[in-house]
TrEMBL record:
GO biological process, one term: lipid transport
Protein name, entry field: Antifreeze protein type IV
InterPro entries in the record: ApoA-II
Organism: Oryzias sinensis (Chinese medaka)
The entry's keywords: Signal
Chain coiled-coil ranges: none
């Protein structure tokens, strides 16, 4: 009978322990489910963000490609105009060269005449100012020499 009581006690303990274990599993299961749900939500958000970033990059690449195609198309349309303007500028330059030469020929006597009148005046001014500049140079040299003489020997 003692054996039966011990066996019955063991069965009761085992059942009780099993019930508690099941209740613990049941209590832990919602927290595990919550953790898994949170993990899946985080992964979903991460994947969504990465996908959106890739879509944005693809749109940017498409816009860059479109802009580049537009620029090349515009360049192809403008290039003939640029060449035409350059050709016209070259023609105008060739047409203006004789006029410029003619103007230079007419102005040269005037500038030579002006120089012939101004040269004596500038030479005269230089002759009058030269002694004054020489005198000032000597004065500054004397000041420098006297200032050096006042300095203590090193």
């Amino acid at each position: 009978m003692a054996f039966s009581c011990v066996a019955a006690l063991l069965v009761v303990l085992a059942v009780t322990h099993g019930c508690e274990a099941v209740s613990l599993v049941r209590r832990d299961a919602p927290s595990d489910v919550d953790k898994l749900t949170q993990l899946i939500e985080n992964m979903s958000a991460s994947i969504t963000a990465a996908t959106q970033e890739m879509v944005d990059k693809m749109k940017a690449l498409e816009m860059t490609g479109t802009a580049q195609a537009y620029m090349e198309d515009s360049r192809a349309k403008i290039q003939p105009l640029v060449e035409q303007v350059q050709a016209e500028a070259t023609k105008l330059q060739e047409q203006v060269k004789p006029y410029i030469s003619n103007i230079e020929e007419h102005i040269r006597p005037l500038t030579d005449n002006f120089n012939s009148h101004v040269k004596p005046l500038t030479d005269n001014f230089h002759e009058q100012v030269k002694p004054l500049t020489d005198m000032m140079e000597k004065l500054f040299q004397q000041v420098v020499d006297q200032s050096k003489a006042l300095l203590p020997p090193q």
